[in-house]
Design goal:
The structure holds two protein chains of two kinds.
Chain A: H1 2-24, H2 36-44, H3 53-60, E1 69-72, E2 78-81, E3 88-90, H4 93-101, E4 108-112, E5 126-127, H5 135-140, E6 145-148, H6 155-163, E7 167-170, H7 176-190, H8 193-213, E8 221-227, E9 234-236, H9 241-248, E10 252-253, E11 261-263, H10 266-272, E12 276-279, H11 290-295, H12 304-307, E13 311-313, H13 326-338
Parallel strand pairs in A: 3-4, 3-6, 4-5, 6-7, 8-10, 8-12, 12-13
Antiparallel strand pairs in A: 1-2, 8-9, 9-11
Chain B: H1 10-29, H2 37-56, H3 67-100, H4 108-111, H5 113-126, H6 137-161, H7 167-191, H8 199-204, H9 212-231, H10 233-241, H11 243-248, H12 253-275, H13 281-293, H14 297-321, H15 330-350
The chains are: A alpha/beta, B mainly alpha.
């Protein structure tokens, strides 16, 4: 029901836009696949994990001949652009990574403070992000679209930008399926549906391979350290990408009883005695390596992972960002646990 | 000359020491991981006996091994010791500042001295100020220096603005100064995010992961600077009546003031460099104890020493087990308790009953 209503609305919008375009005699792009419905359905149906979001979009793709694109962002807001975006500001590192992964990195005209991958993104002008988000900086870059997460901005700020003619698109993946949705949505927005589908397929293939080859039965435990002892221990609990990846390869996250990232007691880590430790501490070239620091901690010598030197440092946010590199991170963890396959 | 009640008597010492040891035992026995009391005792007995064997009789002996003894001996005990020593140091520093400034609301955290020390530590880390051979000394020295400078700035400002050093003025200056220093700290942390610990460590404090070496440093600081403060209890009493009065009875006001300021800075600086800013400890304990001991510093200071240790150990216990297996920052607990006490004291002072 809902979908048919939406369809009529979209059709009306398309017709109106087509007439406008015809008047101005603007050449429209051929690849304007604009699978607006695909995005909507993948959003509503993302719970049924079986359904491939990418296939979905191919089926439903109501080709909009004027080249306009419509996406439903991850807060359920509908955004329509007359043509795929060519000037984008992305505030979160993951959105920047997705843009580069689908070959749309050259459309970035501004990036948030913490966007650091791939290296090319550092050439893009930086804008303050997070709690210091500066509307003036963003407007000065004259983007068509601002990609951001729900964490950093308020609705008032979004409204402000919309009023100034910048389309605000929210990308807010909470799990791997959510990442697929985000990639697909950004693909549509940029007129790069095929590239996005390829990225998603690549990720799915990697995860499927890992799942198939993993022999774990959940008896071995892994502890994901997101903040080292010196800064106060924080672990990744359930509902995190790390937890999802551990699950995929038959490992049990030893802090699965906590939700999200949580500060944990050092005693608990010793008591839970993980078989593997994954730390995402960055190494800045000073002092001991993060793995060495963990092995040198007094009292940790009885932890199985320390005894076996089974500590992996993923220091480039492979498993902490909702981006295509999750597949790489998962592969690194898989190789670490089950030995390199290639 | 000295009436009996003026001093902290031996039985009182004994009582407070016993209380502190009891709290310490409690905090070592209870923790995030639930270890049966019998097992805890046996681990400590084994550790003690092998320690005696090894160092008194020079016989080879193995310390107990295994997860339980790791948790007790290398994680929980050193942490509780650090907490106890920090509590004692901060509380003593607070009591001394209250006497020196004749201000019941004075404390390292309310006046921004702790924030100043944290700024010093953050600068030392961000700019890599270290002494070769002593990797952590740079942070500590900078923290102490900045705590001292903060005190001097506060006193100078207070003197300029309000010669009578009224309660309100000093606290107001302290609040302004804290905010100023906190924003400076945020700036430094923004520019050196890769080196400096997360801001919550510096603003809320944590003694997670502290070891015996840290405990030894704290003990050293407490013996040295704490000793200086305890030694000046009589002068603090004289200051409490008034600087003029102190001068009349033959106290070298300038010298004593300077000595005490250095001692207070030393205690606060070293505590902050090890455990971050833990607020309100120096405010809460001396006040609670003043009700018990009276305002005489010869009784108040030793009581603060033990009382501070007990208070902070209990606060840390709450931080450790309240949301188990999660952990809270210790400063959250002390600030919660402290804010309530602060309002209470302020209310009482305003009503003129004093403390």
């Amino acid at each position: 029901m809902k979908r048919s209503v939406k369809c009529t609305k979209t059709l009306a919008a398309v017709l109106a836009a087509a007439m406008l375009l015809a008047l101005t005699a603007c050449g429209s792009k051929e690849d304007g696949q604009a699978p607006s419905e695909g995005t909507v359905s993948s959003l509503t149906e993302q719970d049924s994990g079986e359904q491939s979001a990418a296939e979905d979009s191919a089926e439903d793709a109501a080709k909009e001949e004027d080249g306009s694109v419509t996406v439903t962002d991850m807060m359920g807001r509908t955004v329509t652009l007359e043509e795929p975006a060519t000037r984008v500001v992305a505030l979160t590192p993951s959105d920047c990574e997705i843009l580069y992964a689908i070959g749309a990195g050259d459309t970035l005209v501004g990036r948030g403070t913490y966007c650091d991958y791939p290296a090319d993104v550092l050439e893009v002008p930086e804008v303050d992000s997070g709690s210091e988000t500066n509307m003036e900086q963003i407007l000065a870059l004259e983007p068509q679209v601002l990609l951001m997460s729900t964490m950093s901005q308020t609705e008032e700020q979004a409204k402000q930008l919309e009023d100034a003619g910048v389309h605000v698109v929210i990308s807010d993946a909470q799990d791997i399926d959510g990442v697929y949705t985000a990639i697909e949505m950004i693909g549509t927005l940029m007129g790069k549906d095929e590239e996005a589908a390829a990225v998603i397929d690549g990720m799915k293939a990697s995860f499927a391979e890992i799942e198939e080859k993993s022999t774990g039965d959940g008896s071995q435990t892994v502890y994901f350290e997101v903040s080292p002892l010196e800064y106060g221990l924080w672990a990744a609990g359930s509902n995190t990408f790390m937890d999802e990846v551990a699950d995929m390869m038959g490992l049990t996250n030893c802090f699965a009883d906590l939700d999200g990232w949580a500060s944990v007691s050092e005693e608990q880590v010793l008591e839970r005695n993980p078989d593997y430790i994954v730390t995402i501490t960055m190494y800045y070239g000073e002092g001991p390596l993060p793995e060495e620091e963990i092995m040198a901690r007094p009292g940790w010598e009885n932890v199985t992972a320390v005894k076996n030197k089974a500590i992996l440092n993923l220091q480039n946010n492979e498993l902490s960002r909702p981006a295509p590199r999750l597949a790489e991170g998962a592969k690194m963890l898989f190789d670490f646990v089950y030995g390199a396959t290639e | 000359m000295k009436s009996h009640r003026e001093r902290f008597s031996a039985p009182e010492y004994l009582f407070f020491a016993a209380l502190t040891v009891a709290v310490l035992c409690l905090c070592v026995c209870i923790g995030s991981v639930n270890i049966p009391l019998g097992e805890t005792l046996s681990v400590f007995w084994d550790a003690l006996s092998s320690f005696v064997q090894k160092f008194l009789f020079h016989k080879p002996a193995d310390f107990p091994e295994g997860t339980v003894s790791s948790i007790l001996l290398t994680v929980r005990l050193p942490r509780v010791l650090c907490v106890a020593l920090s509590g004692a140091a901060l509380s003593l520093a607070g009591a001394a500042m209250q006497g020196l400034l004749k201000n019941p609301l004075a404390d390292g955290s309310t006046l921004g001295v702790s924030s100043g020390a944290a700024l010093g530590a953050v600068i030392a880390i961000a700019f890599g100020i270290t002494f070769p051979s002593l990797p952590f000394a740079g942070t500590m020295v900078m923290a102490v220096i900045f705590a001292f400078l903060s005190l001097l700035i506060l006193l100078a400002l207070a003197e300029k603005l309000d010669r009578s050093l009224s309660t309100g003025t000093i606290i107001l200056i302290g609040v302004i100064y804290s905010m100023f220093v906190s924003s400076l700290m945020s700036i430094v942390i923004t520019f050196a995010q890769d080196r400096v610990r997360h801001i919550t460590f510096w603003t809320m404090g944590s003694l997670q992961g502290r070891g015996y070496a840290d405990a030894a440093v704290l003990l050293g600081a407490l013996v040295l600077f704490g000793g200086i403060i305890l030694f000046h209890a009589r002068e603090l009493n004289a200051f409490a009546v008034g600087e003029e009065n102190a001068r009349h009875i033959g106290v070298n006001v300038r010298r004593v003031k300077l000595t005490l300021l250095i001692a207070v800075s030393g205690l606060i600086g070293i505590c902050v460099s090890i455990g971050g800013v833990i607020g309100f400890v120096g405010l809460v304990t001396p006040h609670m104890l003043r009700m018990l001991t009276g305002p005489n510093h010869r009784r108040l200071l030793p009581a603060s020493l033990f009382g501070g240790a007990c208070f902070l150990m209990l606060a840390d216990l709450v931080a450790r087990i309240l949301l188990n297996p999660r952990e809270l920052n210790i400063g959250i607990v002390t600030s919660l308790a402290g804010a309530v006490v602060f309002v209470f004291i302020f209310y009482r002072t305003r009503r003129g009953s004093g403390c």
